[in-house]
Write a structure and sequence with these properties.
This protein has 313 residues and is an alpha/beta fold. Helix content is 36%, strand content 27%. The protein has eight helices and 15 strands. The protein has helices at 62-78, 98-109, 144-148, 185-200, 206-213, 222-245, 260-270, 286-304, and strands at residues 2-4, 6-7, 11-13, 18-20, 23-26, 36-39, 42-46, 85-93, 114-118, 121-134, 152-158, 163-169, 172-181, 255-258, 278-280. Helix 4 (185-200) runs antiparallel to helix 6 (222-245). The protein is globular and about 55 Å long.
Amino acid sequence: MLIAVDHGNYAVKTPAVSFLAGLTEYSVSPPLAEDVIEYEGRFWALTGSRIPYMRDKTRDDRYFILTLFAIAKELRLAGELPEHIDVDLAVGLPPEHFSVLKERFTQYFKRAGIKFAHNNTPTSVSIRRVFVYPQAYAAVVPQGQFLKSTNRIFCVDIGGFTSDVLLLRNGKPDLQFRHSLEMGVITMNNSIIGRVGALHDMKIDDDHIADVIQGRDTILPGDVIQRIRESASGHTNTILDKLRELQVDLRSTPAIFIGGGSVLFRPYLENSPMVVKAHFVPGPMANAIGYKMLAAGQLKALAANGGRSGEKA
């Protein structure tokens, strides 16, 4: 079975499900937790508090456990958890980190006979192959015909902690031109939360900020709402200014925006004089969908070549 997982700093996504990248470990089964994995004598529950940013997600087992949650959720969508199943896993990395971390990412996930229980149902999974792709590029794979008709376009992925940019030439990634800025939604939210706490003596969280930016109903006072909107606009402009410093000028080259941050900041991006022509890929699962499409193509080539194809992008 082919399963694709996008290991975001804010959320973990598959083509069908999304959940916060928050995890707590227990020595005994937590009685009130609704989503629990038991693995190697320990219990892990999904929580509403996300894991702090990790550039290298292989440095401990937390993102591996989050991957087990993603696999279990995908298997349950397909039916009951089987006693054992072989899985091919498609994942991704920021373009700037791709060459350095792709082998480590492959070895981190590639394991046989992984025995665990999801919500008291035992199962065993062997991850046979791991396919690793550049983020951002994977998300625009479904836009293939549109991209092939565009000679030069910047793909900008605004995510939880990073904003990644990749140059596409005739629909193909130019991995010689790739950058990653630590300027995603989380960095903006942390700044806003601190500022509102200091200036208004009020505790807010990520959900309050998203409600304001997306125009949903809120009971926050008007001055706090205004500060959040101004901060979001300022953060968007800072991202665009930093991109210009990297020779990413969106006044002369069109852009395709992806990622949850792009959806959040879309009104500010569309109204910015620094962005002349922009296309948006909606939905937070775009990278996971792209990973699955790319891996399906490689698996087809692998079958045609009698198992002699490589497994990394």
